[in-house]
Each structure stands twice: as C-alpha cells, then as structure tokens.
Amino acid sequence: MQVTSSIREPLITGGKTLKDVTHDVSRQVEGKPSLGWILGLLFSVGILLLGSIALVATLWEGIGMWGLNKTVGWAWDITNFVWWVGIGHAGTLISAVLLLFRQKWRMAINRAAEAMTIFAVICAAMFPVIHMGRPWLGAYWALPLPNTFGSLWVNFNSPLLWDVFAISTYFSVSLVFWYIGLIPDFATIRDRASGLRRTIYGALAFGWDGAAKTWSRYESVALILAGLATPLVLSVHTIVSFDFATSVIPGWHTTIFPPYFVAGAIFSGFAMVLTLMIVTRKMFHLEDYITIGHIELMNIVIIITGSIVGVAYITEFFIAWYSGVAAEQYAFINRATGPYWWAYWSMMTCNVISPQLFWFKKIRTSIVATFILSLVVNIGMWFERFVIIVTSLHRDYLPSSWAMFYPTWADVGIYLFTFGLFFTLFLLFAKFFPVINMAEVKSIVKSSSQKANK
Amino acid sequence: MERDKNFVLGVYDDEDVLLDAVTRVRESGVKIHEVYSPFPVHGLDDVLGYKRSRLPIAAFFFGLLGTTLALVMQFYMMKIDWPMIIGGKDYAAIPDFVPVTFELTVLLAAFGMVGVFMISSNLKPWGQARIFDLRITDDKHVMAIDIANNAGFGEEAIGDVLKATGATEVNKKSFE
Prior knowledge:
heterodimer; A: mainly alpha; globular; B: alpha+beta; four-stranded antiparallel sheet; NrfD-like (chain A); transmembrane helix (chain A); transmembrane (chain A); Fe-S-cluster-containing hydrogenase (chain A)
C-alpha cells in the first residue's frame, strides 16, 4: 500500500492503469523503429566508424599519435576517462542512493540511467586500455596474474591499480544490478510475444515466474545491492581522484579531491541523464512517466552538486594562498591567468554560474532551458578535468621544460569514437530493452492514478 | 489426486484487495500454493507467512570471503612472494591495501548474493517458468490453490472462498 502526501504532484500523470504501463513501454520494443531512431543510429554508427580510424591508427602506430609530450604526459586520454566515469555515477546514484532514501521518483528513470552508467564506464575504460600502447599485453600489467618474470606482481601501492579494481568492480556490480531489475520486465515482454521474440526474451527473462516468494527475495537482493552500490559509487570517484591527489604535483596534491570529484561526477552524470531522458521521453512518448516534476527534481540535484563543486573551486584557491607554498600558489594563479585561462574560465562559467540559473522555477521546469544547460554542464565538467590535468602539468619544475599541449586528430578521433559507441549502445538499449522499469512503476500506479483522478 | 498438478486460480485486480484476500483465505483454512504478481506487493510475504529472506546473511559471508581473499592476496604478493620497497613504505603497507580490499569485498558480496538468489529462485537462461496466467506479468494478481493440497474443500468450495474475498475471476489450470 502506498501512502503519499496529497499535496504532492502525482509521479505518473494521465491516469494510467497497469495495462497502460505495460503497453506504453513494451510497444517500443515490439513496434518498428521510428525514423528518428534510425537516423540517430546511423549518425552514431557513422561517428563510431569515423572515430575508429583514429583508434586503429593509434593501436598501429602507438600513442605517439597523440599530442602528448615529455612535460604533458597525460591530457585528453585521462580527461576523457575521468569525464566518462563521472557521467556514469548518476545511474548508480539514482538507482541505489535514491532507493535507500525511498525516493519513488527514481522508478521512471533508473533503468535508462543505469544503462547510461554501464555504457559510460565502457567508454571510460577504453582510455586507460588504449593508453597502455599494447593493450593485448595489458592484462599482465593491470591484473595480478602469474607471469614469466618469476611473478613480479602488480603494485598494490599504486592508485592506478586501485582504479583497475574500482572500475571493474563498479562495472560488474552495476551490470548485475541493472540485469536483476530487467528480468521481470523481460518476462512481461515474453508473455506478450510469440515465435522468435518469445524465445529470445524468454531466455533473457531467465524463467521468471512472478511468485510472491521470488519477489520477496528480489526485494531483498535489490536492497542489499543498493547498500553495496552506494559506498561503491562513492569509492570509485574517490579512487579516481587518488590518481591525482596521491601525487606531489602542485595543483593535484590536495585532500579536497575525493569529495569534490564525487560531487562533480554526480553533477555531470545528472546533466547527461537529463540530456538523454529529454530526448528519450520525446522520441518514445513517455511524457506521462518522465514528467516535468522528474526533470525539476534532477535540476535541483544539479543545483546542489554544482554548488558543492563551486565551493570546492574557491576552497582550493583559498587553501593554495593560505598554505603559503609558492608552488601551489603559482599553480592556481597560473590556472586562472596563464596560457590556459580560457579553459579555466569556461569551466567556471559552465559549472559555477550556469547551474545557478536553476534557482528560477521557470528555468528548471523548462525543457528547452534544461536541455541546453545540461549540455553546458557537461562541457564545463570536461574543462574541469582538462584544467586540473593539463594546467598542473604544463608548467614543469624546470622552466626549460615548460610546454603546451595541442591535441592531434587522433586525440579528437578517439574521443569521437567513444561518443559514437555511447550513443550507439544507448539507442540499441532504448529500442530493444524496456526503457522504463515497468514492474517498479506499476507499484506506484495506484497512488498516482487515484490522485490524478481526484 | 496428484499434488502440484491441478489448481484453482483466483484473479485479483487490486493489490490492497489481494492483501486482504490472502489473510481471509488463510483464515478460512484453504492452503495457498503461491501468489503471482506483476510487481512487488509490499506486505504480501508477511500475510502469506513467508520468513524473511536469508540472502543478506549470504551476502555478508561472501563479503567476508572477499575481504579475506583480498588481504591474503595482497600480503602474499607484496610481502612474501616478491617484497619490494616502494616509496619507502613497509612491504605490507596496510593503508594502501584498503581500496582493493574494499572493492573485492563489494564484488564478492554482490556476485555471491546474486548467485544464491539465481539458484534459490531457479532463474537461469534456459529456465522455463510455469505460467499460471499470462496476465501476471501485465496487470493481474493470481492466487493459485492446489486442489490436492486442500482435500477438505472441493473445487467449488475453493472457488466460492476466492470469490467471497474479491477475486474478479476464478479459473482452473492443470499442468501435465
């Protein structure tokens, strides 16, 4: 039984019944793809193929194809890695953290957000793997496997190795969490279908029978997985921030990094969820499930995390001054006024100023404004990583080593490749998998429709 | 009559009616085989008298196994098998082992628990569900009563009990 305050807006509008939920979500899977979807897929696959030229060239020639030099030894590769991992965080936050807080508005968006997490982590993981130069040998460098050097093991003191464990655990646990939620919905599609579709979705549904005993176990599994995924998602970006924070480079060596990176990750992740959901709800006519109310709540999360990020930027600057360490002070002054000033101020504008516009109710309930600002936030978050990584490196300890970083076509191409991969995977998901968690949404239909009919 | 073959099915439209019906059917002395629903109905396991799932306990012990394996692995590799001084730290630099230990704890707890769930609920890719009514994955709740298990009641009497508790349909289903 659902008890919701009567002054709250219903989570599902349009007075939907259980049957409507099944129909509205399953028809995407069962029907012919729309023209918009086909064009979107062609475009994504096109970008994927175009970008794969850069990928193949890099694998063939080596990472000398990139714009890295002796001074700036990390640039777009790790910027893109951190950016994609950060985007992934919103999915787990929505499905796990909001489950623990019993926020029912998560139900309409958790499926797509988790799918986004999985695809974003795949894109992120590409970068360290390619950066190995010879990724086919990478397993020996990244995993504790016995090898021909008398088993010279991997270095467990290195944050880069912690990252290997963090990202792979995060990916596999998210995948399992997502799949467990998909099983009952695959069963719904199985029971509506016949022939080949029935066989395929029947196999995907794992023989789900909907028994009360199974549901009871399912609910315990979901709760415990949420309890495990919550510290996991916080640990992942914490460990990503350790890649920088445990070093001695001025601009990287700061204890504020873990919370600041986690807030930034959720910030950019919610922006990407909004970008995708605004398009998905329109393309698949899901406006009654993903309502303006959902968009407004996500925008509120963006204000909060955006403000945390803003405070973190200012704190960093203050601490650099207050520490009295000349190298720290220089690193920060140089960020704001040095040769990369344009990147720094793009970051400040996109991440600190633009989300504050959501304080106006008109803006945070406007679909067009939200869509534009969600793109702005993700541009800003890309610049944040670029600023932290490149500006801290380009002024080396010896002025004779000072250098600049200029991306080559291969840098740009591989970044494009991951975009192509991400959108291709997301479009395939949106067509062939139920984009909304039908079973969970059905559990709030009664309370919502009673309110809508009042 | 053979058990687990012939069932009377009560079809319910509303989850609150269903919860009430389960209590009343059980009070009338009819034994319920199982209830099938399109979504998790909160409190249904309580009124059916199911014990709380022990899966969280399984998760805890799998997690403990993960912690142990992670620590043993790191101590063995870093201190025993090939000790090296890295950054002037002790061979067994325990704070550095925390992240990997945490990750492997979560990994084993999650996979172990989900594995046990799959086995205990008989979920597998080649699994075939015994479907009482196709609508239980759409919009109906179905209460299945095994006729052979309720020898004191006839088929008719069971149907009457279900109707009296608010079932919108009463059907019969037999499996080979």
